[in-house]
Amino acid sequence: MPLPIRQWCALAYATLLEGMQQPAALLLLLSSVVLTGLTPVFQFHALGEEGRLARDSGLAFLLVFGLVLAATSASSSLSAEIERGTAAATLCKPVPRPLFLLAKYGGVMGLVTIFWVATLAATLLAERASEHFVMLGDEVGSRSDWLTTTLAVLGPAAALGVAGVLNFWRRARFGVAAFLGIPLALLAVLLACGCYTRFGHLTWYQLDLNGRVPAAAILIWLALAMLAALASALATHLRSGPTLAICLLLLACGLIGDLWVGPSSLWSWRGVLGGLAPNWQHFWLCDALADNGRIPWGYVGGAAIYAGTWSALALGVGACALRHRDLG
Known about the structure:
single chain, mainly alpha, two-stranded antiparallel ribbon
């Protein structure tokens, strides 16, 4: 394997392990999956469609908590190492500064991807557990799947217990074991829910899940990739607080981009800012899933090309900023 690839893999893996050991990362993951899993318990209105409240809430938690996780992880892995001097020691190996930035970004995206898998699984389980009108032979009526809700909450708790046991007996890192165990537990519950009906009766294996949700979740993952690239670029000169504030400001401006850009010409200041600042409405398409709607996979592919281009531009600016940063 070429030396640059080995260097990138080693740095990205170290960044991923360091991110999973952070208590804030585990708290964000737990908050996202627990709040999503408990949404059916506090659902008092169907919003015109069965399961919509749980689905929209889970995707919202994925975006908000994922943004905080991406921004704080990028800042802690870059700005903190620069302040401690470990970045200067790494770059003396020698490791090119652009490669160092790309490796840090890769580790952050690995962390965000694990978080994304766990929250997506919790969202699918929450929508299944919401109250639906079911007709299964003699079983007819509106029913909430309390068994799925219970398993969706107990799964993360069991993962924390296993992580504690591994830490006690095997001296395994609790944060790493818990951060990996929670998505694995939720995926196990996701597979197990195909063995029973919403009424709690055993049946032939059939996954009763909404297959239209992953397309919307992938778009949010692309948005998180762009925000992680921006946070990595900002972390070369800023600390965690300002980095998170700028990312939140960009997200807020992008969500209302259609309002402040309006019909402005391409070369006006509004048009230029509207082109540089992403319009997050193109990535937040929860309303497209209403009334059995679907998001075309061709649209997802086009959004992936745009997100990759924008992220590359942000990382390029960050590489230039890191090149002129004094690490002494």
